[in-house]
Design brief:
Layout: H1 4-26, E1 34-43, H2 49-52, E2 58-63, E3 67-73, E4 77-84, E5 89-96, E6 99-105, H3 107-111, E7 118-130, E8 133-143, E9 149-158, E10 180-189, E11 192-203, E12 218-219, H4 222-229
Length: 232
């Protein structure tokens, strides 16, 4: 039979085992909230110098637990995008030439604008450190009409931050990627290419007001915006 001291030791052993068993759940990463600053490099060959001076040099991304805001400020205009990750809605704010306009779109409205190209992603073993975080290289592939795949781009992302499962829902190329894009390129139109590279990642609490459109913005549709400024 187990004596009293033996029972106490057995009890303490079981408690210790239970604590160890549940420890991984306690130690899981908390959802990341904070600010990511990107520098923007543009391929602007052929553009006049006065136009180059008006192009954006950086982008700020503010990350909450279920909302994200990106902000690009230039001498001529401010453009922000607010994402609601739970409802998968996309609101773009334009402050340009004295006009303040807001375009809110549902996920269905957003995806209706995407091309029907069949893209897939492949995460490679290549890695490098960007802004203090280990990043993996992901290759973007496109399937042509013959069913053949070809590489059409790549990016670097980190999965070291705990983010919302819908974090990339508004990105047609990387919507299924679970992680934060730290270096990537995009076609800006007019034969321009924009490269975004994260230069600073700061963990902080972001106020809810950061994700609320300021007063004074007129809500319009994408079609109405196109009539005002052409295609965006």
């Amino acid at each position: 039979m187990i004596n009293i001291m033996g029972k106490k030791n057995l009890f303490l052993t079981l408690i210790a085992a239970l604590l160890l068993f549940h420890f991984p759940a306690v130690a899981q990463k908390k959802p990341f909230t904070g600010k990511v600053t990107y520098k923007i490099d543009l391929n602007m060959a052929g553009l006049p110098e006065e136009v180059k001076g008006m192009m954006p040099k950086s982008m700020a991304m503010y990350i909450g637990e279920s909302k994200v805001k990106t902000e690009i400020i230039t001498a001529m205009s401010n453009q922000s995008t607010i994402l609601d990750l739970n409802e998968k809605s996309h609101t773009t704010l334009f402050d340009v030439m004295g006009q303040k306009l807001a375009v809110k779109e549902s996920y269905e409205e957003l995806t209706d604008q995407w091309l029907e190209d069949d893209y897939s992603i492949k995460i490679t073993d290549d890695s490098k450190v960007i802004a203090g975080y280990k990043c993996k290289k992901v290759i973007l592939k496109e399937t042509d009409a013959d069913g053949e795949q070809k590489e059409v781009g790549f990016a670097w992302f980190t999965d070291e931050l705990k983010l919302h499962e819908n974090f990339n829902f508004n990105n047609p190329n990387y919507k299924n990627l679970h992680g934060l894009l730290m270096e990537y390129e995009m076609d800006a139109g007019n034969n321009m290419n924009m490269k975004f590279t994260a230069i600073e990642v700061s963990s902080m609490k972001i106020k809810d007001s950061a994700f609320t459109p300021p007063e004074g913005y007129e809500t319009i549709t994408r079609e109405e915006l196109s009539k005002k400024f052409g295609s965006w």
